[in-house]
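Deliverable D5.2: sample structural annotation.
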Amino acid sequence: MPLRPLHSIACSAFVLLLSAGAAAAQHPAPVAALLDRSIDRLGGDSALRSIRSLRLEMITQWIPTSFATRPFAGQPSYERNVELRSYANDAWRNSRTVLGVGAGFNVVDVVRDSIAARFGPTSPNASGWSPLNITYVEERRELFALAPERLVLTLRALPTLGALADTLLDGEPHARLTATVEGLPLTLFVRRRDALPVMVRATVDASADFGLAPWGRHEVEYWHSAWQRGAGGVLLPMQRDVRRVGQPYKRMTVLALDINAAAPADSFAISDSLTTAYLASERRPMWKADVASVGRVVQEQFALTPPMLGSPGAVQIGGTWVIFETAQHEGALELMREWLAALTPSVPIGAGIATMPATANGGARWFANNRSARLFIAPGAAPYVQRITGQASAGTVVRTAGWERIGSDSLWLEPFDAPNIAGAMAVYSPSLRWLYLPTANAPAQDAEQAALIARLRARGLPVEFIGSARRLVSPIQGGR
């Protein structure tokens, strides 16, 4: 029987106010009794245990991670999802359609136990199946383990369940129950007044995930709201919000939900050949690319790297290599170092430059641990680098334009603001007549790009080549 929301739920900020232990003294109810209340509140033990599968039609709003003071610092993206979960078989099928910008991306992700595959475009004119990275196996594990309809039952059966002092969420007392489920250390927040499981906070290791690799091991929160009754009297949340490293990550708004929907085995079928391919190639981090086979050097001084590494490459300046952006993970940057050392054994990595106010700076940890190489950081990138490294001074934050000595040469570093990218940084090499802008040739930033090139040329500094986070070097367009 489908479950549909009666009205939309407006987005609100989550305010977490931690209390001391006073609230716990006011609510001495044993942990088991509290979980029994939660189970009853969600429909009862028998009803919850009878959930073998769920079918969820959802809109997912992906929210760019931002540490800016102002809200809504980036443009979200949207997907329409149809999820089929077989709790009985640890199988998950997620049909994804991108809406708006990027429309036309339509794939079906399937995870069966510990194997993952995707049906989607394999070329401009063809679609087919291909193995999918282990990241999606980990995502399935996280989703299933932290689902409230399963978690309350799992915790109730754990003899090692612990409890912390109560806390306040929006002024309401909440119990905090602690455990490790599916290898995930977690804390479940249960509202004392009605025993609803409002939020679960878990520690996860996302080092293999391309987008989340910069955070590595970090905290994720799943918030549940907009509860509605479904088949068998089961109470389930229609709004599921996710935060990572304390920031909004995505909103999953359920449009329709079927309890014990048909989940035939062929919905999760993965062929033997796909299983073999997955086992041979996908149990690795997404950023772990074969740099030696794909990387190449152009114009002698520009080393181009595979896109999945998270850095466009390195430039030889003053007898050292300068890494642009810092790659998705310190392991990815180490792959770059090994490749560059094989190419030019006598040329070390002398510096890294993080020009973008974005999460893609996981390799900053490599620089924080290798102080022989300097790290220059754009103003807008500083909060990301500080959070990633856990250090307030992992490198030099460039707040005013000026020259920086790099080996036997120099680079001009100039912070700039432009539409959609505040606190970024431009880099200019007079010896290479090359200008790097993280989003070079973006139409919305044409005016800023043209003005910067004009200022450099007015000072007798020619610009013949341009680079960006997508393409490290190319001739400048139209002589701009």
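Annotation notes: The chain has eleven helices and 27 strands. Confidence is low (pLDDT under 50) at residues 1-28.
The annotation will be released with the project's public dataset once the embargo ends.
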